[in-house]
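Help needed: design a sequence for this.
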């Protein structure tokens, strides 16, 4: 069956040169965006109940842009002036670049990993005498605390924001040829909103092994998977599939 409509379970890209827009134009398909999950901040009061005193830490570990936003939001709510001497350990360049929204880059001590959390290990190890705070979501991958525990550093994890299922009830009678997922939480949202969902002719595209597993655990069929050596991005995987099925 040909692909004419795609629903991506993420917010619409804010950049004009997104590969999704190129894909839409090139393959003449309609692509809609709708977050199946969203992030809600935890209040300063809840942070205090986790026994977090921001003044006790000399370094912050930031794994995402959400972590950056919510750390500074909580600091503001607590009227805590983040000291200039604070060290920031960012999982990727994208996170470090985003940090500039809140701090003057050249005046801060910022340490950047390449992409994965494990890339930060040598940097954290080098500063193992710091007191680290990890502001994070309630859905943290086990690898992160395991890595920090293995390093033997003084660190604390605190939930600064939560991943919440979005209300998708308005999509009850809307059909798409392809649904695109990037996390197990997206699959949870699908079944929370539509407990009787049946795949039938709907194609499911997934990114990452954990998402593939979540789809299969629900008895669904994975039709399009990324990343692969041939299609390292979701848009490339979608384009390859569309080119094949739309030729018929």
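Sure. Designed sequence:
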């Amino acid at each position: 069956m040909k692909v004419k409509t795609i629903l991506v379970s993420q917010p619409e890209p804010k950049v004009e040169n997104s590969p999704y827009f190129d894909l839409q134009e090139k393959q003449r398909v309609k692509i809609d965006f709708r977050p199946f999950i969203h992030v809600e901040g935890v209040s300063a009061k809840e942070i205090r109940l986790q026994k977090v005193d921001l003044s006790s830490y000399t370094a912050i570990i930031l794994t995402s842009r959400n972590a950056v936003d919510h750390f500074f939001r909580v600091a503001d709510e607590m009227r805590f002036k983040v000291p200039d001497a604070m060290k920031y350990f960012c999982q990727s360049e994208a996170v470090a670049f985003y940090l500039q929204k809140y701090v003057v880059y050249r005046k801060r001590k910022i340490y950047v990993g390449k992409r994965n959390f494990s890339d930060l290990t040598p940097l954290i190890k080098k500063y193992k005498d710091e007191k680290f705070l990890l502001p994070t979501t309630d859905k943290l991958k086990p690898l992160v605390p395991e890595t920090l525990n293995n390093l033997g550093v003084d660190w604390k994890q605190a939930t600064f924001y939560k991943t919440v299922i979005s209300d998708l009830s308005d999509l009850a009678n809307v059909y798409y040829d392809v649904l695109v997922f990037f996390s197990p939480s997206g699959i949870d949202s699908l079944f929370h909103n539509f407990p009787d969902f049946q795949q039938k002719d709907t194609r499911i595209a997934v990114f990452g092994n954990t998402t593939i597993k979540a789809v299969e655990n629900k008895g669904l069929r994975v039709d399009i998977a990324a990343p692969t050596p041939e299609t390292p991005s979701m848009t490339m995987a979608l384009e390859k599939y569309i080119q094949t099925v739309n030729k018929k």
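Residues 65-77 form the longest helix (13 residues).
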